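Internal tracking record. Fields below are filled automatically when a chain is submitted to the structure queue. Please do not edit lines marked as system-generated. If the sequence contains nonstandard residues, flag them in the REMARKS field before resubmitting.
Queue: standard
Priority: normal
Entity type: single polypeptide chain
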Amino acid sequence: MKNKIVTYLPAVSPSLSPWIIVILSLCFLNSYDGNFVFDDTEAIVNNIDVRDTPFWDIFQNDFWGTKLSHKQSHKSYRPLTILSFRLHFWLRQDLVSQDFHIVNIILHSVICLLTLFVYNVFLGPEGQSISFYATALFAVHPIHTEAVSGIVGRAELLCSLFTWLSILLYSHIIHAKNIVRAWVAMPSFVICITAAMLCKETGITTIGICAIYDIVIVNKIYPIDIIKFFSFKHINKNLNNLIKYKNTVLRLAALVFIAIILLFLRFSIMGFSTPKFQSVDNPASFMDNILLRILNYNYIYCLNIWLLICPIWLCFDWSMGCVSLITGYDYRTFVVISSWFMFGTLIIYTFTSYKDKTLRYVIMGLTILICPFLPASNIFFNVGFVLAERVLYIPSAGYCLLVVIGLQKFSARFSLTKTSLLAYAMLILLLFIRSWIRSSQWRNEKLLFQSALDVCPLNAKVHYNIAKNAADAGDVHLAKLEYQEALRLNPKYAQAMNNLGNLLKDDGQLLEAVSLFKQAVNLQKDFSTAWMNLGIVQSALKKYEESEVSYFMALQHRSNYPDCYYNLGVLYLERRQYDKALKAWINATKQKPTHKRAWTNMILLLDDLDKTEEALKMANKALKFIPNHASIYFNIANILGKKGKYEEAEIQFKQAISKDPTAPMIYANLGVLYHRSNKLNAAEEMYKKALQLKPDLYSAKDNLQRLYTLKASIK
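SYSTEM-GENERATED OUTPUT FOLLOWS
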């Protein structure tokens, strides 16, 4: 047992260890009843792919529901993750956030168990104790909170699931008793690799992990062997085996072939173009000085490592001032140098050591740490974030393995078994508590955004999200202050200008709102929402021609924009251009068949134009898409009532009441219908119900008084 790892950490029963891992993985259980927060809104709640888009469109759109061919697409292609969200909706016929959170927690527990199995594959029977301790650390690490407690983290979880399954299948291929069984298992391996990549792009890096596993663990080839081989020195016996045995060469060739095919398919789906990001998303990528750019990238790598080592400061977003750029002399340069010195020492150790008992396992730890992180490293292409905690989900498995191997070597070197075990137990306890607390902060946006202030008080996006949350809660004063703070920190924050402009518009400060909207569209020419809002305010200021131009600009940059068509129709209505108004609203309902206001306005306009038959046809058409909308039945009833079809109108009024029993106008108008048809007692009852719901409904008061007068005259 020459290469056996000597461990002074006490062994844990193989039958007990999985249960302990599952219990520890429940440290994120505190978020099981959380809401949809932050990116969940765009990726799930507002994403039509999750609800009712044609099935095939999911494979043509990015993670956020935008066509991959669109210039604003982030090119994040994760159809299997979206399908998992859609399955929730199909089962419930609704989006229940608790369901999503529970599934994420279960997935994390399953992944933790698979992590234990993967570690066992890497370390073998003699390293099962280290596998357990490393998996326990992985299970409770707070860096996973965003991936587990944030629902969009499902992409990381599913990618990790298929990554571990791919590694286990690859191990099965290697150790299959005959080549037939190995190649039969190969399709399952390819499917899992492809599935991992279709859950999140980083899944492709699994091929690199499998290749290193095959070379280092299975064939026991050390980096020093490869160096000697290429320097034409003594070739190690194990490297000769790599060349001698065809199966190993065939496996590695197959991995290369699979990687090329998958990368080609991935880039072809993207149209062989990369996504376009703004400087605020990743400021370092926009630096002209290449040396400073590389220095800032390296500082970000240091921050990622620090979050793994000391996950105290966690934030939902690290952009917009959270990490200031290094532009000259800065003490952080020494942080980068020191980090590279320590990391370089570890790399030199791996490339110069020979037949060290733990070297091969250190290499696997480094492989899992580095390979899955490469797509987020800005080395191959620029990414749209400064630092994202969820991308460290798989790399943290490599970090945990390295930590426990280091702890084992420390215990072996200094014979401090009890001290090491106590320190490890304290670490697990502290990380469990930290994960429990952090997961509770992901339960709602108010807690999440407020927690970010302690970490990144200079992050304009944090203040923006606090403002947005305050506005949704009706705290307009706080929302204005936070939007203003966001703009102070980032004067070119177009989204903050747009949202603050909306608040000013609602307060009647139209000129100030116009100024903000114009600044927003000047900064971001294709900001369709700001163009539409500018059009709304210009219309309110009676600047109809300017308003129309703004609406057309919004539609130019976003052709599928039903709300813009609706507002354009309102503009035409004010200008008495009724045909144009109808066309605009028809376009709105074509793009969004459930657009209630557009349907209602078309029915009312046709009725006002005395086109009652057309209005009724339009209303019946609307009911096919929004059968539970009380307003449609209400409008049909009013039209029928005016035509003297009282019985038919009564049926429609009752339908409206069944859909919305709390609407006073429905009862009031049904009272008018009864009043006209001399059903005076029924009319009195309806008027009273209307006044119970809205005591200041003057039309119902007046009609009730007239009814009493009529009853008195009859007597």
